[in-house]
Amino acid sequence: MIATSDTAAAPAKLHAPAGRDTLSDARRMRAPRIALRPSWVLQAFLLVGVLIAAAAFFTTLVSWLGAWRATPPALALGAAGLLAFQVWHRAQPAFIDIGTDRFAAFSRAGACLVDGRLVGASQWGAALLALVVEDGGRRKTLLVAADSLDAESFRILAVSARSASGRASG
What we know:
This protein is of the alpha+beta class. The protein has helices at 5-8, 22-29, 40-65, 67-90, 151-169, and strands spanning 33-35, 95-98, 103-106, 112-124, 128-135, 138-145.
């Protein structure tokens, strides 16, 4: 049987699963992974916040209970804050991929933390970038501090995120 021109000229996209674009999949696989360092600035702000909260709790309880009786609850609050800090620190991404229609963040172990479309991005000065990613109907916010990457990568990420979020909302 001889192939007709209709089957020979069929585009490759027709053979892909419904809703999939094979060209976009090829571009996604080649997206560069950007490595993130832990942000010392964000860590310092969070730790100072935990210390301030424990000190404020202590000073509130001192007037009612006295110094000796106010110390254990204040230390417990500080310990709970430090445990929450550890959980937050472990949940921070180590690598990110940003493409034309996809944003993904990965842990140090390679597990995907978020994978979806950028739906918003804002930047505070030259220090912090907040990325809003829609992942399976849920929105997640990812903070990327300027000290977690080199200056050029941060600038490229900020520009890419703003342009990708503009396309996602339009």
